[in-house]
Amino acid sequence: MAKIIVDGIEVDVPPDYTLLQAAEAAGKEIPRFCFHERLSVAGNCRMCLVEVKGGPPKPTASCAMSVKDLRPGPNGEPPVMFTNSPMVKKAREGVMEFLLINHPLDCPICDQGGECDLQDQALAFGRDRSRYTENKNAVENKYIGPLVKTEMTRCIQCTRCVRFTAEICGTSDMGNINRGEDSEITTYLQTAMRSELQGNVTDLCPVGALLPRPQNFRARPWEYSKTPGVDVSDALGANIRIDARGREVVRILPRLNEAVNEEWISDKARQSVDGLKLQRLDRPYLRDNGKLRPASWSEAFNAIAAKVKATSSEKVGFIGGDLSSVEDLFAAKALAVALGVKNVDCRQDGAKIDPANGRASYLFNATVEGIDQADALLIIGSNPRWESPVLNARIRRRWRQGGSQGGDFPIAVIGEQHDLTYPYEHLGDSPDVLQNIVKGEGFGKILAKAERPLILIGAGVFARDDGPAIAALAAKLGVKGDWNGYCVLHNAASRVGALDIGFVPGQGGLNAPAMAKAGALDLLFLVGADEIAIEPGAFVVYVGTHGDRGAHRADVILPGAAYTEKSGLYVNTEGRVQMTDRAGFPPGDAREDWAIFRALSAVLDKTLPFDSLAQLRALLTRAVPHFAGIDQIEKGDAGALKLPAGDISAAALVSPITDFYLTNPISRASKVMAECSALAKSAALKQAAE
Amino acid sequence: MSVRRLAEQQPETFEFTPENQAWLESQIARYPPGRQASAVIPALWKAQKQHDYWLPQKAIEKVADILGMPYIRVLEVATFYTMFNLEPVGKYFVQLCGTTPCLLRGADAIVAVCKQRIGHQRKVTADGLFSWLEVECLGACCNAPMVQINDDYYSDLDAESFGKLLDDLAAGRPTHIGPQNGRQRSEPFGGLTALTEFYGADGKSGPLSDAQAAAQPANPAE
């Protein structure tokens, strides 16, 4: 630890702290543009100048000088720095004046206005008027992708976006071309950025140069009502802030959570918001003579009640969807239990995950933060870049830190080869190489030596017949002493929560693929289940939000609430329970799914024992106590992680995600995601042609 | 300085010649493994020399591929340094120094000749022989005003000698590289006025050898 006196306050900080961090430790805020905690230090905006004693006798960029670089005083006193001396004030005024020489005065028409670092800091640290009468520099606008609109005249060349795409995304899309006053930030010849995290540059940009294109001229920052939520586009459960203007959700921003998403979210999480307004189901529908017609709630309920009466409980089934909250599925399961139905399943993809094997068998046991501690990584049948881009960025960061014993952080992949933004050893397409690895051959040697090996198993693995056998071998590799590196990366936001409440077939019940077969059932409830094709035969009741696959097949549609329109619990892939709040109401007659099941149960004379969400949650936590621990992880028991061994086939592993941008009903309804998807496809075609 | 963009007319492909490829590999070998990117400036320079003194897009991409760099990183380097020409230049590419010492010594007269004989900056003459560009100090202020034509400095110019130089180049006649007013290097124009004992009155004889210096009286005034 090193001592430093900041404005007369003595603080004790690690010697590698920068002066900026030391000042923050002393409670002094230092203005900055180019500095960002998660990016490398550039030191080019000069806004963070401070005065130091024991260093150069001139203003010093506090982001680029560390405490250990300062000399102590003549009698061994700690070094001294000032953040509010006349020299600092003058330096800041000077820097701000330079920055504003070429910055346009278009704040009234700039979307960043109100949440602009330059605006705020000009007010706090700048001069009150400009001394320049010369013309301002103008810069050509650039095309850098469908998600980011540019206004490059406003750019102050902080290079945060350049460092973000190079360091975090790993795609090195952006750069600073030309020099001096002609410097321009652009992508290579104005091609679109290729990262699934590119939307984050709009948050990083301290001015209005990079703005989210879909939200162009939509609202002012102070007009939004801001609601904390949880992203459901993948199973990471990234923390988000839902910004609504009136009843309309306009944008989604990341919310800081060091343990999950830090401060990034994927483009799908951020920009599928327009999908929340399109293709929405806003009233019940009933199929008459092969055509869906609008109906009232009581009409729809009566039609369902007639079907329930006409059949037996063995011929009724429930399939849970990928975006449903725990409460929705809990209510659906309660109805199933009341009706005596055993055909209940949340695994639309036919994943052979059995909650009876213990919670450790389906969690990302090492936790997302555990990636930082891992010393070797084996990826089996997953493309984390598409299955969870933010998690992939975390793996990339781990790779950038290098191996724990020097050298590279060892990463190997079994399955499809994709550009994961970090190098890896490809061990083969088929999982049968796993046998040799368990024996300690090849990459197995590295895993055997590793103290904290992380075995990442894609959700697609479990959909195979040999899924449990592969998982059993993975568990052998991953569990070492206290370290449980057996990590399942799910794709469905609802999956872990649904498994926690046991949304799986009871004794003798059918699983989801069996329920979908023609003639298996008479009556099938789809709780937002859109990823499974239901064969003709059964009378299908679809409870969901969008006119997607499930609704097209449905005989009765009951309109539900999307994830921004309800308070609900979601459990992410590592088992972290998170709660999302309501940012707006569902459209038209749509209701929250749990309330629909409660109302339906009354019509069926099986009234469920809750009248409010609070009562439902009380029942839920009584059944599964760990749901009471919001933002906590109930660890799975690694000792109980004994999966049945079995034969492994030689068939190649494939990731279930073939199009990152279109994986759920919301993103499939989104025009922005469709544009991104088309662009990514044409880029892939172009690459294949070369 | 002004905004520089890649040329609109671009060749379809770019490949290094086998000799240049071998030379480039020897340059890359100078750097530790994983640090090949350090060879980006020599690589671009060689590509430019091979390709009529300008860098096409495909050459930038080729260099990036060879060095394992993202394209944008190489583009940054190519646009940063004005010694990399992004657009076609004449067979004789005149880089004219317009910085203060040259300007004081009459660079504006050279500029006038360029404008009259060649035309606007960055425009190649119809016969493809000449183009010119005003650049910042080339470090030959003692011989101001000066121009660099391709790899060679021509200094101590005036409108007349520069015009003649252009005529000679256009006609394919040999030219004298260096000062155009009879000077060898940057010695005083009218001969030495000091230290003649050491260097000779014409100043062209160079420093005395050790033996000659020893034979000199300790104090020349005596």
From TrEMBL, chain A:
It is an enzyme of class 7 (translocase). Binds 1 [2Fe-2S] cluster per subunit. It catalyses: a quinone + NADH + 5 H(+)(in) = a quinol + NAD(+) + 4 H(+)(out). The keyword Nucleotide-binding does not apply. Pfam families: Fer2_4, Fer4_NDSU1, Fer4_Nqo3, Molybdopterin, NADH-G_4Fe-4S_3, NADH_dhqG_C. The keyword Cytoplasm does not apply. InterPro entries: 2Fe-2S_ferredoxin-like_sf, 2Fe-2S_ferredoxin-type, Mopterin_OxRdtase, Mopterin_OxRdtase_4Fe-4S_dom, NADH_UbQ_OxRdtase_75kDa_su_CS, NADH_UbQ_OxRdtase_ferredoxin, NADH_UbQ_OxRdtase_Gsu, NADH_UbQ_OxRdtase_Gsu_4Fe4S-bd. Transmembrane segments: none annotated. CDD domains: fer2, MopB_Res-Cmplx1_Nad11. GO terms for cellular component: membrane. One of its GO terms (molecular function) is 2 iron, 2 sulfur cluster binding. Keywords: 2Fe-2S, 4Fe-4S, Iron, Iron-sulfur, Metal-binding, NAD, Oxidoreductase, Quinone, Translocase. One of its GO terms (biological process) is ATP synthesis coupled electron transport. Its EC number is 7.1.1.-. Its cofactor is [2Fe-2S] cluster; [4Fe-4S] cluster. Belongs to the complex I 75 kDa subunit family. This is NADH-quinone oxidoreductase. The lineage of its organism: Bacteria, Pseudomonadati, Pseudomonadota, Alphaproteobacteria, Hyphomicrobiales.
From TrEMBL, chain B:
The keyword NAD applies. It catalyses: a quinone + NADH + 5 H(+)(in) = a quinol + NAD(+) + 4 H(+)(out). It comes from the Bacteria. Binds 1 [2Fe-2S] cluster. [2Fe-2S] cluster binds at residues 97, 102, 137, 141. One of its GO terms (biological process) is inorganic cation transmembrane transport. Residues 211-222 have a biased composition (Low complexity). Its cofactor is [2Fe-2S] cluster. Belongs to the complex I 24 kDa subunit family. This is NADH-quinone oxidoreductase subunit E. It comes from Rhodoblastus sphagnicola.
